Protein 1
Amino acid sequence: MRFYLTALKPTDSVTDGFLPAARALGCEVTILTDRPERHPHAVACDVRDPRALIDTIEHLGRPDAIFSNSDHLQTETAMAASYFGLPGKDWRACAAAKNKFLMRRRLREAGVEDVFSLRLGPGDAVPGDVPYPVVLKPREGVASEDVMLVERDLAMAVAQVRRRRPGEALVVEEYLEGPLRTLETLGDEDGLKVLGGFETTLGPLPYFVEERLDWAPTHDEHVLAALRALGVGFGACHTEYVLTPAGPRIIEVNYRVIGDHCDFLMAEVLGVPLFEWILRAHLGERVPAVPDKSRNFGCAVSLVADRSGTIKDAPGHESVTSGGVRLWHRPLRATGDAVTLTHTNRDYLGVIRAVGPDRERVRAAVEEYRAARPWVIE
């Protein structure tokens, strides 16, 4: 089977998840990327242009599947899959999910929820009558970059972001207060299945850095209704929402599998070959029944830098088992690296994921590991 994967920069999800899964399924894998020097045996292609993507694939050989796990390439990849008549996502759903203003508009028009939102183009004036507090974010941003709570003086906050992002559109949204949750789904041509979800712990406001995710299986009908309104169903999707006093409200819909090693964590908690399941859907196969999600507990803890400086000491890549808890540490930086705080997910030093029989034992194992193997920045 000829399998094409579109990518920008290398990621652990692709390198350690999807590529081994594709090979295990017997696929001949071709990586298409605009950064071929960063991927082994990749083919250069302007993957942000669906016309160039289709042309390159036709030249290389007719596909059995076309897939991407990149936030930025879902629409283009879906269009290419549709051109070749392959299973794939609806490109309109991909576009609406990625563009936070379009997402809000679609949900309001469908009568699912009405959250204040306005789009600020690069030259648009900043309104003075917004319902503070609000959240300012890039229209198509990722990794919490330039996402901030604004309680007054929106014009100043917009000016700061525009200096870093000239020419980009921004979105101003109502601040949704309450516990943050995720819903993880996977769909095939028969429909959508709920895999589970996480409780998310954020760092201090006004920023929105995710510091910890704890496995907390959910099945929220409001979120599923929102996904249906957006046309999201096929393939993997990671949806973030808030349990507000007025009910659940969507934060964002990421039309790909959850990241920051929570995809590996979810596979461990469920005890399934998750990456293979996702690829099988794109190969036209059916997703198996999701097993009982209550038999294990898992968490992913992002180790976030609390200061700028130089990394003097750091634990390495390792896995340990103790007291029935399996724990993995993945460093994202190295000793000697200079760290400059950005108040985004770019401040992650490493990530710990742990799976065990219950919450308390898992949390104790994580705290013990962190105390014994600290990151030191001076």
Note: The radius of gyration is 21 Å.
Protein 2
Amino acid sequence: MLGLSGSLRAASVHTALLHAAAQTAPDGVTMELFDGLADLPHFNPDIEEQEIAAVSAFRAALNTADAVLIACPEYAHGLPGAFKNALDWVVGCGEMSEKPVLTLNASARSIHAPAQLAEVLRTMGARVLEGVLIEVPRQARDVLDVPGVAEALQEMWRSLFQTASGADALA
């Protein structure tokens, strides 16, 4: 499974939530976090076919992943620009086609970005699973110390494996 954070912040709660998800993953499930989104150049269709190391690394990570777990914040009622840029680099290449994708949201105040993200992912041909809300305060130092987070992540994994699409994708 590949983890993607929609935030470039060093102290991102969304990135921390992905690390916590990796720590709570069931036996037999390996989750790698891709940390190269900040290295991607601005998407430009004129250079889309050129060999760009950061883009190649991103595409390769997606190609080898059985499924994708995305934790993405909401900025100004939308997706963060850097994350949308990353998705633009793979929209026409097929890396997300039929790939199961689960989204995590760390704030109930995020009401626009989750729907936008799901729409973009569906447009790319991804199999978008029902998103999960796990509230984490922005000032949390260790998200697994936040009451209820570890249990919510364990429930997320259980639910994912109980769905036919999740079980097929991660087995």
Note: The chain has a mean pLDDT of 91.
Protein 3
Amino acid sequence: MIDTIGETVVGHLVDRGMTALGPGLVFWTGGGLAWLSAHGGPGELKRLAALVQELPVLAVIVLVAMVFIGVYASTLLVRLLTRPVLRLLQGYGPKRLRAARTAKRTAQVEKWEEERQELARPVHDGRASAPQRARYAALDARLNRDPGREELRMPTRVGNVLRTAETRPRDKYGLDVVALWPHLWLSLPEEDRLALAEARAALDRSVATVIWGLGFVAFGYWNPWAIPIGLLLALATHRWWLPGRAVVYADLLEAGVDLHRHLLYRRLRWPVPTDPDDERRAGARLTTYLVRGLAGTDPTFTTEAAS
């Protein structure tokens, strides 16, 4: 998938740093409470507070710095894990398991398509009941998030949402978004890049929340309640928050290509296509040109590049 969409500086550095450390602080605070519950509870906390009060100021500063270093290190580790975990949540994994899950997904998609076709006539004729119209709309939305071809299908909902956004522009415009993403990214207006970067950051935060939740399970060694809390957080995020963020990111990615793909042609001084059929041919040729290069005198570049 498209893993890197560029760096965008938003807000003040301190605000961004504290926002990034927030989940880590919550995580370790919860871990500390789990540890205290197994080692005396409030009484142990009071004893530790008394020990800290007796320490020299310099030692307290060093202790606080060590705490923040630990929080920062764990936050950095989660950030490094975000991309590979997202790939796992998309369905990239052992080929045999992936093939079995994809086949199951394909069977489900085929059932949805059959049901949608059965509902299509009464819905279009105006004879459908309100529940039938609602069901038709739900099926249409689900199938719209599917790549449509079995060889492109992923075994998970999130994987299919992102795969559809990456592959649909090739079907419509002949452009391979994955291969040309750096060029397309640099062609987008600043406000569009900012919106897309924020959507990607929200997607990454949802993946990070899954990681934090699974990590919290380890504190079950001291308090069994940490296990259901961590699992519930991870599962709820994976079930509801992550797919929603994936949809927003995918919609913005596809919309960016829909609205601004012609800027790529102009900036490369490449003739802008004149109709849909011409665009699919031109997009495929432009993809080849940027990925591997072309020889010859066709096409003829335009005289000026767009700024």
Note: The radius of gyration is 25 Å.
Protein 4
Amino acid sequence: MKRMFLAAMKLSLVLVFLAAGVLPAHAHKPSDSYLTIQARDGNRIEVRWDLSLRDLDFALQLDRNGNGELTWGEVRQRTADIHRYATERLALAAGDKPCPLQPSPNLQLDRHSDGTYAVLAFVADCPNLVNGLKLRYGAFFDVDASHRGLVQWIAPGAPSAQALIFAQTSAEQALALEAPSAWDTLRQYVVEGVWHIWIGFDHILFLLSLLLPAVLVRAAGRWEPAASLRSSSLEVLKVVTAFTLAHSVTLSLAALGVVSLPSRIVESVIAASVVLAALNNLRGTIERRRWVMAFAFGLVHGFGFASVLADLGLPQNALTLALVGFNVGVELGQLAIVLVFLPLAYVLRRTLFYRIGVLGFGSLAVAAIAAWWFVQRAFDLG
């Protein structure tokens, strides 16, 4: 038993160090940039590109005095370098002919939910636009492989924008002159929903914190192995269903503009929900009604999902399809996590490794990480 206890202790310490080194880096939203590309009358293309100062500083070392505080003066002095960096990593071509981007000399700043962004403006002349337009995107991939460019493309005469996502594996794409099909829109947003739940560590840790005790029962103040896989599966089903229903409601309401909450409050409460769910595993205060916690905090998590969907952009001509697709993607991502978790947890439920190492020390580690996230978000720490 002593060996099992020591093994559990070692595992928990490994988890703490790994999580401390990786997860806090994602306490805020992942690295994205935002582009709006619009075809004007004739051959003129106008581009607005919002680039995070955090990312630019990492790539170009804008903070010259190294004090950790980036000033407007430090950014403005590097305007030429920022424009050069951008034009070397963004390229438009109509047919086989490039459309050189001409930057505006002015550099502006704008505030997004995760910090301050530099706003760059470009114009390009594309005389062969009828032959099709292609965009090649290459910003920050060398320093962050998960970075993405979120593009709103407004084709000539189009009533609304088309949303495209550029990643390292899809760095060059065609900008369609006609709106994408319903199937293409649905598929795109399903993939984005799956991707978001898999990189949303706070959402994953909240769900897993609620699921960890599902293969156990509380008896005489202790966690004991559940009697059957059926009872454990039923417990998982209640938690996941409650979480799904709750976040689907607020995701839809927020995405449609019916209800909105400040991002800082939403992200802080999400972090607090992870802390409470993890600490509950240590005392078992809420035993058979974890689905209530899943539903209550799931309402707040829905607002978090909605902020991601807002960043991606909702095509007005396919609003329902995009919303449904993203929601379905989130649920598929959750289902994949559950299908991996439940059989493994059920097999290990009788071991001290699971009850002490995974449930006990693991929950402590999760609570500590989420508490740090809460401090970061509530007090707006960089």
Note: Residues 4-28 have pLDDT under 50 and may be disordered.
